[in-house]
Amino acid sequence: MTQSIQLNQAVEHLDPERLSAFIDGELPPTGQQGIEQHLTTCHTCTLRVLSATQLKAATARAGHRFAEPHEALARLTAQLRSQIQAKPQLQAEAKRTARIHSIPSLRLAAWTVLAAVILLTISLVGWRQLHQTNTLAAELLDQHLATLSSGATPQVISTDRHTVKPWFQGRLPFSFNLPDATALPPDTTLKGADLTYLNNQPAALLLFTIHKHEVSIFLTQRAISPTFTTLPSTRAGFTLHTATTPDLCIIAVSDVNPADLNLLVASLLQAQAGG
Amino acid sequence: MAVMFHSQCLPIYAVSLLPRNLRHTEALRTMSSATTRGGDFEQLALPLFASLYNHAHWLTRNQDEAEDLVQETFSKALRAFDAFQPGTNFKAWMFRILRNTFLSTRAGIAASRTVFLEDHPETLDTTAAGPTPEDNLIRLDNQAALHAALERLQPHLREILLLCEVEEIKYKDIAVILDVPIGTVMSRISRARRTLRSLLQPPLGASL
User: Fold this and answer.
1) Distance CA A30, CA A36 (A)
2) Which of A44, A154, A221, A226 is the most exposed place for a label (fewest CB within 10 A)?
3) How far apart are CA A23 and CA B165, in angstroms?
């Protein structure tokens, strides 16, 4: 095949592929001009080009078929903002770690160590709380990530609250209610549950899916978990949502958009109030 | 993963060893830079949302799956945005991520196992001629008929046709998105048009 017009030798009409590339403007200038010259003398090919152009335009119109769902853009924007906020925090932490290895002077290091000791002494109480909160957030995230592995099977597998809730009887020093499947937000399903430990205390880990996103819900006694209320709202791109009732602390962890996660937590809160 | 997340707590000791103002400034600069980068990404990517969603819907054939696919695409693209080379085609880059993400789904894996005949020219009947002038007498003002024909088109033909006609992406960029040679793009688009035309003919071919 050459760069010149590719014609069908038997009938001397345009090759379909070249015609297609011609109407897309994808031929080199010489090829484009050659075909334009051929069209001035060939009525058949002119009709074919006209028809192909009409089909192209009609396909473009028909292909614009699916409009995005209402508020889908808002959900996406919220997800991106959350991710953007999480990203610089991780980068800043990484930079801080890197900087510690580049202190040029031992003298400066000595002074900064002294300053650090003083600073640490003064802020020990506040730091302990921050550290505990960070550790808890890491523990929650680790447990959620563990549930995502393909080999992780819940201890109780059921979509029925009447199976999941009784399973915890005798295993937890507290009880809780689960919403009926009809009371859950749209496209939200209970998958099963695990008995787990948070902050060295027993907790229920409920596993849900929202759309295709996995959600971990941790339920623990409020009296023994005061620091959960100060957890960060995001960590490493995952949303951590905390809510409390007079008796329970509910923590949700997922990468689903925060609005959907809030709906699930709200339905759980409602179930506790109704129970 | 557990080690990674727990280790994020450790720098709290180390950070305090730096002069406080230096640490604060550095952290702010890092956060500011990353936030600006995130803003740049939003500015470039969000206008493509409608196009990506429309294409994702054609790929998945499901509204929820399409939205999830687009969300995952944006999330991946944001994470990889530092690797995007300015001056190259951002739209093609996003569509490539969308397609690769789709191919990692169950439906996508099934689609990727299909072998396309036109990618193996030796199996094709090369003597097939183009349509005659009479074949061109099809109606194109019937939107429902076009939708039905697009639905019936093989997924790989529909996909390339949508990239070319709806998204108006050039052949060289389509080749990058689909990870095929540009010659395959040219032959596949031509074949897609001929197939679409033939699907439009049976019920309507007699009328203009």
Assistant:
1) 10
2) A226
3) 11
Position B19 pLDDT exceeds 70: no
Instruction: For residue range A108-145, list pLDDT tens digits in order.
Output: 777 778 887 777 776 665 656 666 677 788 888 888 88
Torsion of CA A83, A88, A93, A96, to 10 degrees: 170
Count of Cβ atoms closer than 10 Å to residue A54 Cβ: 15
Report the pLDDT value the prediction gives residue A144, as an integer from 0 to 100: 84
Quickly count: other Cβ atoms within 10 Å of residue A239's Cβ: 24
Rg (CA), chain A: 31
Q: Which of A26, A19, A25, A22 lies closest to A45, judged by CA?
A: A19
Packing angle of the helix pair B182-204, B171-178 (nearest 10 deg): 100
Distance CA(A158)–CA(A192), nearest Å, equals 5
User: How distant is the Cα of B206 from the closest Cα of chain A, in angstroms?
Assistant: 15
ipTM: 0.73
DSSP-derived pairing of the beta strands A156-157 and A213-221: unpaired
**Which residues in chain A have Cβ-Cβ distances shorter than 8 Å to B43?**
none
Whole-number Å distance between alpha carbons of B17 and B190: 66
Cross-chain Cβ contact A138/B9 below 8 Å: yes
Question: Which one-letter amino acid corresponds to residue B113?
Answer: R
Q: Look at residue A266 and give its three-state secondary structure.
A: helix
Look up residue B128 and give its two tokens. 């097939």
Helix (H) or strand (E) holding A158, with range, is none
d(CA A260, CA A267): 11
At position B56, the amino acid (one-letter code) is A
The order of strands in the sheet holding A188-198 is A156-157, A188-198, A201-210, A213-221, A248-254, A238-244, A234-235
Contact at CB, A211 and B33, closer than 8 angstroms: no
What's the pLDDT tens digit per position in B85-130?
888 899 999 999 999 999 887 777 766 666 555 554 544 444 444 4
